[in-house]
Design brief:
about 60% helix, elongated
């Protein structure tokens, strides 16, 4: 129900703001403001989006929790959508989402309403198929092996000259 209210109220607010600002500034300055905010927003979203992408990659490389950079990246994406939508209200919300403190506050508010059931990273519980058999058998497979000596030159699979015999 609240989604329907948003789809009805936001366009009404935008139309009202266009009428007010257009009456105060005139048509062309109002349209110029809309175009400038879209261009400025696109530049800021691209810059901050690339920074968050690097932060996500860094968190994966360091095996740290990627929640914050992923959430910030999603909010920057939403900001970009709002800034490309013509209107003063959507631009205000879009620019607000480009402020890291606002994103942290939104993330905190959303996090308070979400309950995480489980989260694992790195070495956690093993999958069901790798657990010991309840009948006492283990997952060890016994086998014999022969060490093959290494030979010099191409392996036969990759021969730069194409002279190795095909098997």
């Amino acid at each position: 129900m609240w989604l329907l209210a948003i789809f009805i109220l936001v366009p009404i607010v935008e139309i009202g703001l266009f009428i007010q600002v257009g009456g105060w500034l005139g048509l062309w300055p109002t349209l110029l403001i809309v175009v400038i905010t879209a261009m400025l927003g696109t530049w800021l979203v691209r810059k901050q989006g690339l920074e968050q992408l690097a932060a996500v990659q860094r968190s994966f490389g360091e095996l740290s929790d990627p929640t914050r950079p992923l959430a910030h990246g999603a909010m920057i994406l939403a900001s970009g959508l709002l800034l490309l939508t013509p209107g003063f209200f959507t631009d205000a919300v879009g620019f607000a989402l480009l402020v890291p403190g606002v994103r942290d506050a939104v993330m905190k508010a959303v996090k308070s309403r979400i309950k995480v059931q489980s989260f694992t990273m790195g070495t956690g519980p093993q999958p069901q198929h790798a657990r010991p058999d309840p009948h006492g058998r283990d997952d060890v497979i016994e086998a014999d092996y022969v060490e093959v000596p290494r030979r010099d030159g191409p392996s036969g699979w990759t021969d730069p000259n194409g002279t190795a015999p095909r098997r």
